[in-house]
Amino acid sequence: MTTRVMRSDEWADPPKPVRREVLDAQPPGPADPAATPVLFVPGYGHGAWAFAEHWLEHTAQRGFPAYAMSLRGHGGSGPAPQARLRDYVHDVTQVAAGLPRQAVLVGHGAGALVVAMAMARYPVRAGVLVAPVFGGLGTAFGLLGRNPVGTLPGIFGGRVTLGREQLFSRALPANAGQAYAQRLQRVPGAAQRQLITRHQPEAPVGAPPVLVVGSPDDRVVAGSALEWVARRYGGSPLLFPGMGHDLMLDARWQEPIDAIADWLGKAGG
Predict the structure, then answer these.
(1) What span, in angstroms and rounded, lies between the C-alpha atoms of 143 and 18?
(2) Is 0.70 topped by the overall pTM?
(3) Over the stretch 146-177, which tens digit does the pLDDT of each residue have?
């Protein structure tokens, strides 16, 4: 795969500026100037809060300066009712470029697709794709079969609604899962429709190590989709059976983030 440096559509119609929410947590003790920052990128409907709940502070405790951002129109970032995928990619590259050192990008869900696209523009230290949603009719029809009431409106331009049954395992208390699901925000129609097409992002700049993480029991992303994304980056997915789509919020949230931190240590993060 080749990487295009110039993209005519972005020159002709650049993403509009927007306020971006970025939360952070720093490792305890004196600052280490060589520590690699980790930037968490949430998926559609989620904001930085989804990582601030558990993973942000835990990552800092593992010795990594940790940051979590909200894409435009999500969380505490500015509104963007007409946002498209490339606007989200712009947000990620801008935030990553503003960090003190070359970062590790960690994307979840459709945020993993955004991260994969950003890696073709920004030279990352490493990339982690968690429960990646790279789109395609298989994803759409799979969701339709498992969540017909919440998915059908999206096929006709309405909102796709995911509940706790799609996002979490039964190990997470029902009231907690319901509270998280109620925090999800509406996704702009243009960005949502772009996921009907399966995306094959350009190769990352500099060939960084990339880890794919997920669960075989994910009710949003099929196991075959996890395998497909992992093969694109020359590996196999790291799987956590018994967990749901939102691994960072599920009952066993510590297991995947510890595995990611361990991998970053071995990968030179």
Answers:
(1) 31
(2) yes
(3) 544 444 444 445 555 678 888 999 999 999 99
Least Cα distance to 139 among 106, 120, 162, 171 occurs for 162
Domain residue spans in the chain? 8-267
Q: Are 77 and 49 in contact (CB under 8 A)?
A: no
Tally of CA atoms within 13 A in the half-sphere of 174 that contains its CB = 0
Residue 157: CB atoms within 10 A of its CB come to: 10
DSSP string, 212-254: EEE-TT-SSS-HHHHHHHHHHTTS--EE-TT--S-TTTSTTTH
Which tens digit of pLDDT belongs to each residue from 213-228? Answer: 999 999 989 899 999 9
Question: What whole-number distance in Å separates Cα of residue 225 and Cα of residue 19?
Answer: 33
Q: Which of 37, 107, 29, 105 is nearest to 65 (CA)?
A: 37
Tell me the CATH number of domain 8-267, given options 3.30.1240.10, 3.40.50.1820, 3.40.50.80, 1.20.120.450: 3.40.50.1820
Which pLDDT tens digit goes with each residue over 110-132? 999 999 999 999 999 999 999 99
Count CB neighbours of 137 within 10 A. Answer: 11
Contacts of 6 (CB under 8 A, 6+ apart): none
Of 30, 77, 35, the C-alpha closest to 59 is: 35
Residue with token string 């409907």: 45
